[in-house]
Design brief:
Blueprint lengths: L1 E2 L26 E6 L3 H12 L3 E7 L3 H11 L3 E3 L12 E4 L6 H10 L3 E5 L6 H14 L3 E4 L6 H11 L6 E10 L2 H5 L12 H6 L1 H11 L2 E15 L2 E13 L3 E8 L5 E8 L2 E6 L4 E6 L5 H31 L8 H19 L7 H15 L23 E4 L4 H12 L4 E5 L7 H9 L2 E5 L5 H8 L4 E4 L8 H21 L4 E5 L15 E2 L14 H20 L3 E6 L1 E3 L12 E4 L2 E3 L10 E3 H13 L8 E5 L7 H12 L4 E3 L3 H17 L10 H6 L5 E2 L2 H6 L8 H8 L6
């Protein structure tokens, strides 16, 4: 794949973007709205709260509950569900942190309102769209820029400083590497935007290195792309996981190696000049350089190694001191990602106040997108399927509605229910990005589809009307107990009440063995099924505490109002799509080093995801009502302990896996030490580490699981080899 001689979309390389003409705030703060309340929005808000002369007035997200949670967390006065509700007279600047395919439309709508815009990378999905947005911004006298935070990575800033000082002469070549794991790829969660078509991964990941390359050598003039690796995520859904890009820019040449779903992280940038070379390890935020000297070769070689080592040691010491100062409350946060975000956002707002252009202005963003455009120019055309229509079909006889159908266990549960000849409804948060088995089932009429989530009880009520059984697999969550209680506990209670009112005959709630106390002092070595959960939930983390509270609410509704609920508690669920580094084995301090929850002498209660789905289908198909108000644990009886499992994983994968047994007292002592440091550093919200939770994570007692086995006829796979095979990612089988 190549573009020869010149990119067909040509722009002047000089900075042609017009500085904003619109009058900036004088005598008052810049009023900001954050559009989008996802993961990255919290970083923007954290930085914005640090900036003098900036006030956040609104958070906008179509998921209003999510916007409200974020507004409460950062003390923002307004949480809105749409841009139509945003008063342009009260906002100067908007930070746009929605998915990339919405950037152009959202950016255009904000500019039309007279609001300057900082868009998360990529600014748009083509350099043509950037040009159109830039034209509109210029027409309105507004500022338009991208959040290219990689430009402010501390190690890259070191490179820029030395280049500007002339330390390596003229730049001739740039070598960049972006080889990283992808959590969603490892988990088999292909619903994220970056997987929906082959080109998307470039626009999601490549703007980071391309923004740096553009600063160093300018816009692309000729680009050659080699696809080194490709995999099929789902039938017809291709994903290029390794790329090699070689290009000629306006002031030099560059090559970029990108690899996704990798076990070992490498992010680096090497700049080769006429008189030296600079190198940044972007993952560890390290910097080194090599320059010519006046000495003979033998001494010059010694100095080269010595000076490079000195540069690395200096960077490492600085990183350690920055961390210690931040932890002890003696300095600000300086980790590389956050420092990059802070530098980028601060530069934008500083430029806005001065009426100047920030470094990542529209011209720069356009050139970055020109590199991305070149990478995907020769990819086969791809037409994504049309979004599903939520057809209002009545429930069929014995209909089973599955909330959380797009999740790992949810998809398998749909298949298991279908195998039992039960009609199923998939209740999903969105219509796009669905797994092929769901989409094909809906389009063929086998699966009934409803768009709803745990916070939209009216939509859920409509979805389950006339259904016989509900399977509740949705988790809910949050960063505080208030958020968890609202989403997981109150949402589950409201859903159960709606099921009661709609006459649902069986309500299956999928909880977790995290709701139990499983420490070595629990009083038994074989735990029977019981409605009892941990009697001290306040000593457990948010997830376990939320599950305990949700179980209690459901059992209360069973006692008081006759809710036909059965609670199912799977143990350590494994299968293709679960992480190899499962927390049920221990604390993975690195992806190949696992610290045990104790000494690791008891068998791990593994259970196949397919077996969990089979148990849920059997329960949905069960004719009796003797399981109403009961709790069922689900686990195999495989015999291997965590160190034995990890040793076997090392053999099967060729990875350098290690299990490190650690007694409880030592782990607790280390956690207390961390807590003391946090408190000294001003973290008043840091909670004292729970020894009870640490002990429970060891899962000491075996789980009998007699109810599922005897009443439902459930026969899980107890073979350690089969369970081990299910833990392996497909590429290592």
């Amino acid at each position: 794949m190549s573009i020869t001689e010149t990119n067909p979309i040509r722009f002047p390389s000089a900075e042609t973007t017009t500085p904003p003409r619109r009058k900036r705030p004088e005598g008052r703060s810049t009023r900001v709205a954050v559009v989008g309340a996802g993961y990255i929005a919290a970083y923007h808000l954290e930085v914005l709260t640090e900036l003098a002369g900036v006030e956040v007035h609104a958070i906008v997200d179509r998921d209003l509950d999510r916007a409200r949670n974020l507004a409460r967390r950062f003390d923002v006065e307004q949480a809105l569900a749409s841009l139509a509700e945003l008063d342009p007279e009260g906002i100067d600047v908007a930070h746009v942190v929605v998915p990339p395919d919405q950037h152009t439309n959202v950016g255009r709508e904000l500019l039309e309102k007279g609001i300057s815009v900082l868009l998360e990378k990529p600014l748009a999905l083509s350099s043509v769209d950037v040009a159109l947005l830039a034209e509109l911004a210029a027409e309105k006298g507004l500022l338009l820029a991208a959040n290219h935070n990689a430009l402010f990575h501390p190690a890259f800033q070191s490179i820029l400083n030395r280049v500007r000082q002339g330390a390596i002469g003229r730049i001739e070549h740039v070598q960049a590497t972006l080889s990283v794991p992808l959590r969603q790829l490892d988990a088999g969660d292909y619903t994220h935007w970056m997987f929906r078509e082959p080109r998307n991964i470039v626009f999601e990941q490549a703007p980071h290195p391309f923004s740096q390359i553009t600063v160093l050598i300018g816009a692309p003039k000729a680009v050659d792309v080699t696809l080194l690796g490709q995999r099929e995520l789902n039938p017809g859904q291709a994903f290029v996981d390794r790329w090699l890009v070689a290009g000629k820019g306006e002031r030099g040449t560059a090559e970029l190696y990108m690899a996704f779903g990798q076990d070992f992280t490498q992010q680096s940038l090497r700049v080769i000049g006429t008189d030296g070379a600079l190198e940044a390890d972007l993952h560890h935020s390290l910097f080194s350089e090599e320059r010519k000297s006046k000495w003979l070769d033998f001494w010059n070689s010694f100095l080269a190694g010595w000076r490079r080592g000195a540069g690395l040691r200096l960077s490492a010491r600085k990183n350690l001191l920055d961390y210690l100062r931040q932890t002890l409350g003696l300095g600000r946060r300086e980790d590389a990602f956050y420092a990059g975000m802070r530098g980028s956002i601060r530069a934008f707002h500083g430029a806005y106040r001065r009426g100047e252009l920030p470094p990542a202005h529209a011209d720069h963003a356009r050139d970055v997108l020109a590199w991305c455009d070149a990478c995907v120019a020769d990819l086969p055309s791809y037409t994504p399927p049309a979004p599903l229509e939520a057809e209002a079909r009545p429930a069929r006889a014995r209909e089973v509605c599955v909330l959380g159908a797009t999740g790992f266990i949810g998809r398998k549960t749909l298949a298991a229910l279908t195998a039992h000849d039960l009609p199923v409804t998939a209740i999903c948060r969105r219509r796009s990005g669905l797994a092929p088995e769901i989409e094909n089932g809906v389009r063929s009429g086998r699966i009934r589809f409803a768009e709803a989530n745990l916070t939209d009880i009216d939509a859920l009520r409509n979805a389950i009307r006339g259904a016989h059984t509900v399977v509740h697999l949705a988790t809910g969550g949050g960063d505080t107990w208030e958020e968890v209680e609202r989403a997981m506990v109150e949402g589950t209670r409201a859903f159960a009440e709606a099921a009661l009112e709609e006459g649902v005959q069986r309500f299956i709630y999928v909880s977790s063995t995290a709701a139990l106390y499983l420490g070595h002092d629990c009083g038994t070595e074989l735990l029977e099924d019981s409605e009892d959960c941990d009697p001290q939930p306040e000593k457990r983390p948010l997830y376990a505490r939320g599950k305990i509270a949700a179980e209690k609410e459901l059992l209360r509704l069973h006692t008081e109002r006759g809710l036909p609920v059965t609670i199912v508690r799977p143990a350590v669920v494994v299968g293709h799509g679960t992480p190899l580094q499962h927390s049920g084995l221990g604390l993975w301090v690195r992806d190949n080093h696992c610290v045990g929850w104790g000494l690791g002498r008891r068998p791990t209660p593994l259970v196949l995801a397919d077996d969990v789905a089979d148990a849920l289908a059997r329960l949905a198909d069960h004719e009796g009502d003797e399981l109403a108000g009961k709790c069922l644990n689900l686990s195999s009886r495989q015999p291997l302990t965590p160190p034995e499992l990890i040793a076997r994983l090392a053999q099967e994968t060729g990875r350098d896996f290690h299990f490190h047994p650690r007694p409880f007292w030592l782990s607790q002592l280390m956690e207390i030490g961390k807590w003391i440091v946090k408190r000294v550093g001003g973290r008043r919200d840091a909670s004292f580490p729970s020894f009870r939770d640490l002990k429970s994570r060891s899962m000491y007692p075996a789980l009998a699981c007699r109810t599922a086995r005897n009443v439902l006829g459930w026969t899980p796979n107890d073979d350690a080899d089969d369970l081990l095979k299910a833990m392996l990612p497909p590429k290592t089988e």
